[in-house]
Fold:
Amino acid sequence: MNIHPDQPNWRQHIVSTPEVLSGKPRIDGTRIPVALILGYLAAGSTRDEIIREFPDLTPQDIAACLDYARDLADYQVV
Structure:
């Protein structure tokens, strides 16, 4: 569920393939794992600081990481 209609769905930015990073979720077109970006955010880094560190990222990529984490946190096992 995407809360903001103008924000791209995380599925447009995050992929997981077994041959890259052992299948860990990453930003599409990069080898940058979602967990790394979430770690930077958790440590207090701003979006602009993260983009300076990883110039291949876009603000939408970072927002997609948060959207992905929200979906995981909301996941229900039935």
About this structure: The chain has a mean pLDDT of 90. The helical segments are 34-42, 47-53, 59-74.
